[in-house]
Amino acid sequence: MEKMWKYIILASAVVLSAMVLAAAYTNPSRNAGTISVVGLGETEFVSDLIVIRGAIVVNNEDAAAGYTELEAKCKKITDFLVSKGVEADGVTFAMPSISEDYEDIYDDGNYVGRKKSGYNFYQSFTIESKEVDRVEAAARELPSLMTQGVMVSVYEPMYYYTELESVKHNLIAAAAEDARLRAELIATNSNARLGQLATSRAGVFQITAATGDEEFLAGGSFNLLSREKKARVTVRAEYKIKTN
Predict the structure, then answer these.
(1) Are strands 206-209 and 221-222 parallel, antiparallel or unpaired?
(2) How far is residue 45 from each of residues 48, 177, 210, 230, measured CA to CA in Å?
(3) What is the DSSP string of 68-123?
């Protein structure tokens, strides 16, 4: 009985092997492996939105008088920008902050304490507009208000693009197509045929200045200081291949 079981198992193994060989013969173009490629999508664009931040500082011995002075200087900022063609709706003032100012007291060269000398008012503001050229020119002239007693600081402009999501979608499509073309080229020159897409993954977006050697960051970069920008993304794809 034991010998009979051995023959049964052996016969089954032979039949199974024959089935596998038959499948291989009838389907000689079955998957033979995969091709891994990296596709690139890249484009340049010009920002269409500018954001500039600034601040006003007022010092006054009296709190009420200081606040009134601050309001007057905020109006001077707005009036100046409007006179340069900037829309008033594009100028936003944040909540002002106030702090007490103190001075040290000395007696015969010896420090004896401090006393309140007045108040410091700090008011930040933001200019946001799609009139990029106009706002750039106006912001450059804002410090001239210091000749009128307005202590104003203006920071570097930041540039955005309102259609960035559309750019990103187009870049992913371009990178995916580039990956497919690369895979086809490899397959053709390797005497094989490109099969179905096995896996695909988009990398992080790198948005840098259009010119220069700005470094890419592992988590992606988003340049805000350059009006003219370059965006790029990669797509890693793995395709099945079939032998001819």
Answers:
(1) parallel
(2) 9, 21, 8, 6
(3) HHHHHHHHHHHHHHHHTT--GGGEEE---EEEEEEEEEEETTEEEEEEEEEEEEEE
**CB within 8 Å of 78: residues ≥ 6 apart:** 88, 91
**Residues 5-54: tens digit of each pLDDT:** 433 333 343 333 333 333 333 344 444 589 999 999 999 999 999 999 99
The CATH classification of domain 30-46+163-243, taken from the options 3.30.110.170, 3.50.50.60, 3.30.70.380, 3.30.428.10? 3.30.110.170
pTM for the whole structure = 0.78
* In contact, 47 and 89? CB cutoff 8 Å: no
The amino acid present at 176, given as its one-letter code, is A
Q: Which residues contact 196 (CB under 8 A, 6 or more apart)?
A: 239, 240
Residues of the chain with CATH 3.30.70.2970: 50-160
- 50-160 fold: Alpha-Beta Plaits (3.30.70)
